[in-house]
Amino acid sequence: MLDVRHIVAYNRCLPVLLLVLAAALLPATARGAGQDARSLAAMLGSPDAAVRATGVSALHGCGQTVLPGLLAALDDSSAEVRRGAVIGLALQPAPGLALDGLLRALGDPDPTVRSLAAHTLARLDGLAAPDVARRLADPSNDVRVAAALCLSRMGPDAVPALARLLGRDDPPVQAKAAWLLGTMGPEALPAAPALIRALRTDDMRLVHVLAETLDLIGPDPALVFRQMTLLGSEGRNLPFSRLGAAAAPALVRLLARPGTPMGQMALYTLARMGDQAEPALRAALATGTEGQRAAAALLLTGIDPDLAHTLPEDLRRSLGGAIHLN
To answer: Which residues form the signal peptide (predicted)?
Structure first.
């Protein structure tokens, strides 16, 4: 029979006993929760539709509490479990809480996991766009492809992030961003100024991608003209009469696209520049493509008709009646 001394001693030991019991039980509980999440992920990733349906029902009963376990399951050795983990994260009430894990899944060795992660991130719209866009520069081609898929699914919500990428000095990344913007057509109009600024590049392959994208988007010609005259003048305090001189080399490169909207706009803008464009046009006569040389010759004779006598013989013959020799 316990007396008062036993009760006092027991009361003194009770907090210590509770701490010991908690230390023993908590790891087991955590392990159990993690194991439950893995089992749930395995069901969600099962090739059997009935098993997947059971997994979805179980997931709805768990709510947001299963999120940590699903994130841990993204590192499981089984591809089916990792697929199910992404599906489970996609079905969470707030999938944005799993952003870091889903971004990591874009680099998963399993293509299905990468695709599922891309589609899930696309549902987050603008929230995930900047982080996904940066993955276009990832060393892994699989990650780049998955990121491109994700951004294409986002549509207009990805435009600001892609426009920022155009400012990088990285032609492959700029080209990918431009191509994705081109697939959106007129919805990508807010990116038009950034696309035009990127035309300052010396990489002709990138120039063609940028110009083709602008042709597909179809910005207002007045906007294109204004942005073209500002090329190379950003941050410089120039009088309006001198705006455009620094843009001429970039515009001459566009003359390699005769008959296209951007090629025509470059021709028009260079003609409006007048003698400011002359140095770049003369350089094109010596080193440009056939289309660039012909356009440069026509523009030069517009600046000074007497220049027609100084044109190379092949250009005078090919232009025929387009120029007049006195």
So the answer is: 1-32
* CB-based contact 286:312 (threshold 8 Å): no
pLDDT over threshold 90, residue 83: yes
Task: Report the candidate in 102, 105, 175 with the shortest Cα–Cα distance to residue 140.
Answer: 105
pLDDT over 90 for what percent of the chain? Answer: 53
Report CA 150 to chain centroid distance, whole Å: 9
Average pLDDT over residues 109-118: 92
The fold for domain 155-232 equals Leucine-rich Repeat Variant (1.25.10)
More confident residue, 17 or 258: 258
Instruction: Say what the pLDDT of residue 237 is.
Output: 52
- CB contact burial 49-61 (16+ within 10 A = b; e otherwise): eeebeebeebbee
Mean pLDDT of 191-204: 95
CATH number for region 37-153:
1.25.10.10
Task: Tell me the CA distances in angstroms from 324 to 296, 302, 308, 318, one per residue in order.
Answer: 15, 11, 7, 13
Domain ranges of the chain: 37-153, 155-232, 243-325
| DSSP assignments along 247-305, one per residue | GHHHHHHHTTSTTSHHHHHHHHHHHHHGGGGHHHHHHHHHHS-HHHHHHHHHHHHHH-G
CA atoms of 259 and 270, how far apart (whole Å): 15
Same fold flag, 37-153 and 155-232: yes
